Fold these 2 entries.
Entry 1:
Amino acid sequence: MPDNLQFPKNFLWGAAASAHQVEGGNHNDWSEWELANAERLAAEAEKRFGRLPSWPMIREQTTRPENYISGRACDHYRRFREDFDIARSLGHTSHRFSIEWSRIEPEEGRFDEHEIEHYREVIMALRERGMEPFVTLWHWTLPVWLRDKGGVESKEFPKYFARYVQNIVSSLGTSVRFWITLNEPDIQPMNAYFRGLWPPQRTGILAYSQAVHQLIRAHKAAYQVIKTISPNAQIGVSKDNVYFESANWNPWNILLRMFADYFWNHYFFNAISGHQDFVGLNYYFHNRIDWWYQRNENRKISDLGWELYPAGFYFVLKDLARYKKPIYVTENGLADMQDEKRAQFIKDCIASMKRAIGEGVDVRGYFYWSLLDNFEWDKGFWPRFGLMEIDYKTLERKIRPSAREFKRIIDELSL
Ligand code: FCB
């Protein structure tokens, strides 16, 4: 039996990226934070990354402050056409990118037509190449004026977000079918408001809950705005669900697993019930619970030390079927500078996904993270997630062998 039998026709294949991580030249809450924190992050590098097997290879880069400043990044803002040409040549039929709020509304209430035009061109460039745009409206960065008003945690955040979305969708609405309102609306509050790692470096359960609450309100408000302007639009969020597993039948472990699964995987989705047309999944993590979290066996890890566990992808997809909506995998990937593990990882993840599809789970698209190497937030430039390798000195793009393997799988499944 051919391998592709039963594989959905018109399945979307592609890669994802986000504005701040690739565009270059952004001025937002992150860019200011980077300048203020680069020295500290460089000084802390050994403490944070010293135990990784990749340490000898990354030491030089991670101990330099420039690693932590996004600067011109990949210059994708100007080179997007060239990047999309490559994506197209790699068999991609879709691409996920984000719109940078700080470009669109650099000052409160002032919307920049020139920047809206830029994203119109990005969308057109994708359409001209036969690629379906998946547009993320918020991938973590904020205009500085909004940061100064309290950012995500502020009660006014949903109002400002809805106004920004209204502006974008009334300008670009008809050319976009798939909107992702928010990227990972729990990782951002977790790292920025609970653990104090990302701007604005707040710590505490109250700040965290407040931020999640405002993101729920913001999503719902944006959903209404988009539907009113563009009734056929398909709207979702990209959620980073984790495969939580209890190591054994110990009741404590089982309880902890249920608790983690409920709060991390389902709380947000339940809260926005009735306000999503598809489920967006970013799959990276497996969490084996044995008295506490993260008792993973870590047989295979990425350069970042994250466990590679493609088997868990199947369980997460099966679990998401409960929402009875189409599922798009909006991110899945690994940091692998030598490109040694990427091809196998993609293959194994797609096998897990096929298994779920074979059992009736309605998965309709898969986006590898990421199209190109990029700026990985507080870790800076060293983690290499790209299908394309970037030489940050010359900005030259090089296609990694795994990207061609991915193309081979796409071709085989699209027959
Ligand atoms: C996800 C983020 C994305 C990137 C990958 C590695 O959590 O959405 O921006 O940082 O992780």
Note: DSSP finds 15 helices and twelve strands in the chain.
Entry 2:
Amino acid sequence: MNIPYKILGNGSYLPELTVDNEMYAQIIDTSDEWITTRTGISRRHLCDGETTSEMAVKAGAKALEDAGVLPENIDIIIVTTLTPDYTTPNTACIVQADLKAVNAFCFDLNAACTGFIQAFDVAMHYLNATEPVTVLIVSAESLSKIADFTDRRTCVLFGDGAGAVVVSNREANGADIAPARVYSSFFGADGTGGGYMTGKAFEVAVHPFSDSDQSARADRFGHETGIYLSMKGPEVYKFATTAMPSAVEKVLERAKINLTDIDYVVPHQANDRILQAAAKRLGLDPEKMLSNIAETGNTSSASVPICLDQYVRSGLIQRGQTLILTGFGGGLTYGACACIF
Ligand code: ACO
């Protein structure tokens, strides 16, 4: 489908504290060699007293500045996160208040690591149906607050950070965007794989009017680490290496374009081996499968907009190029969008 849209601006924020693999080797039984060869991660940024919403505000402000859009001209703010500061207010409302985006309505979206691209697709539907409309999407995660730093199978993988884009069906100066641009998307989910990646929110209520004994209740997913993330890595790996390429193939088909029309794929950064395997499966030049995981680790839903922002600022991604944004994550969820930058 063709939609009048433009990514007007982008921004990202990474906490100052950098933790390299050697620092993990001092607290758990792991090594730089294991982490780099199995994941491609060398270091990651971790919050040091900062909150998810603080990072979201910083990334959002950079995207607004880059777009040349005033906060009061934002109509919708969507924040994606699985690590909010509060259940209410949602993180998007905190971002709205801090950025003074007084005319925006706000909601959070949680599709784990697929969150950003899912929010991007929701924004596209607004852009296609309503005019004029300008949307700020911010993805922010402090996974360090739900990582179990005694579990070497998970904690070394994750980093913190935030990324943001401003999308609109109007130029920043209010002019029409013409002609309409190619856009397609595909999303899927497999709830039967929910147990591959779990983190608990709340326990079953034992309120003053409840007589039920919950002591023998088994957790649906066998999750035993409370709010801390638990993951069946090899199962997620297998899912990712098939789900991501199949989503990419579907968006190419829907957009009626070929892999050779794609300038870059901006994928969720979970593991370099997953990205290489996905590129091979697709027959994509590995250079076109962008990666920044060596320096960021897996920042869940924030990883796609952080990666996008870094490669735009480095000059590799340029205006008019055709991109595929793709990801997968807990849920299980997965999907892709084909768009023009
Ligand atoms: N250091 C040293 N050894 C380790 C470490 C570590 N950090 N982690 C695991 N090992 C050990 C395991 O204990 C195991 O040892 P054992 O055989 O003695 O029991 C051995 O290494 C192999 O473990 P596997 O889990 O089979 O290792 P694998 O090669 O599959 O790599 C990894 C694990 C990196 C997690 C991989 O499975 C993976 O990347 N999976 C996908 C993860 C993912 O994409 N997650 C994100 C999705 S959701 C989200 O992003 C929020």
Note: The longest strand covers residues 134-142.
